[in-house]
Amino acid sequence: MLAYSNYFCPMQSLVEIISGLSRLIVQMEEDAREQFKFNELTITQMNYLETINYLGNPNITELASEMKLTKPTVTVAVDKLLEKEFIQKIHSDEDRRSTHLHLTEKGKLINQMHDYAHRLVAELITQSLSKEETDSLVELLEKVLKNRAELVNG
Q1: Using an 8 Å Cβ cutoff, are 105 and 112 in contact?
Q2: How many Å apart are CA 23 and CA 46, to the nearest integer?
Q3: For 55-79, what is each residue's pLDDT tens digit?
Q4: What is the pLDDT of residues 102-149, one digit of tens each?
Q5: Which of 9, 42, 86, 132 is the most buried (most CB within 10 A)?
Q6: CATH code for residues 3-153
Q7: Is 86 in contact with 41 (CB distance < 8 Å)?
Q8: 10 Å Cβ neighbour count for 74?
Q9: Residue 8: exposed, middle, or buried by beta-carbon count in 10 A (0-12, 13-18, 19+)?
Q10: Can you spell out the DSSP letters for 14-76?
Q11: What angle is formed at CA 71 by the lines to CA 41 and CA 43, rounded to 5 degrees?
């Protein structure tokens, strides 16, 4: 617990906890990247692959919107992933002018490795908590994410 002017400051504690969790997640992702020998990809590029998978073959506009980035920024990143053969562009059946981003087998493998790192963090958390505490944490985090989605969409 942190004290600020002799009063408990929950916001500062929360900031420090989030910072610690963020460092833990990045470290787990880096460890998994080294373990699976995918050092040619940055964590940011892995996040692109994760988002493409999550969205289910989006186009550039959908990917940019989800990642809260500009289309030119996303296009540069996508071009690098295409060059490294982690994704491919496939023309839409409905509109041949439109292309969608699909993970290649190599991209799917990276995404599985990224998921593995996240599972390790989840296991670390659940090993530190009782079932009831884990259930409460899940419920609270779902509430935060739901509230964020409502703020963003609404």
Answers
A1: no
A2: 16
A3: 999 999 999 999 999 999 999 999 9
A4: 999 999 988 888 888 889 889 999 999 999 999 999 999 999 888 876
A5: 86
A6: 1.10.10.10
A7: yes
A8: 22
A9: exposed
A10: HHHHHHHHHHHHHHHHHHHHHHTT-TTS-HHHHHHHHHHHHHTS--HHHHHHHHT--HHHHHH
A11: 20
The pTM of this model reads: 0.70
29 Cβ contact list (under 8 Å, min separation 6): 43, 46, 114, 117
- List the one residue out of 20, 13, 102 whose CA is nearest residue 59: 102
Which two three-digit tokens encode residue 26? 């990045």
149 vs 154: CA distance, rounded Å: 8
What residue ranges do the domains of the chain occupy?
A: 3-153
Cα 70 from Cα 22, distance rounded (Å)? 24
Are the C-beta atoms of residues 12 and 4 closer than 8 Å to each other? yes
Length of the chain: 154
Please give the C-alpha separations between residue 108 and each of 7, 17, 25, 46, 81, in angstroms, as whole numbers. Answer: 49, 31, 20, 10, 12
Residue 91 bridge partners (DSSP): 99
Pairing of strands 99-103, 87-91: antiparallel
Q: What share of the chain is helix, strand, coil (3-state, %, to 5)?
A: 70, 10, 20
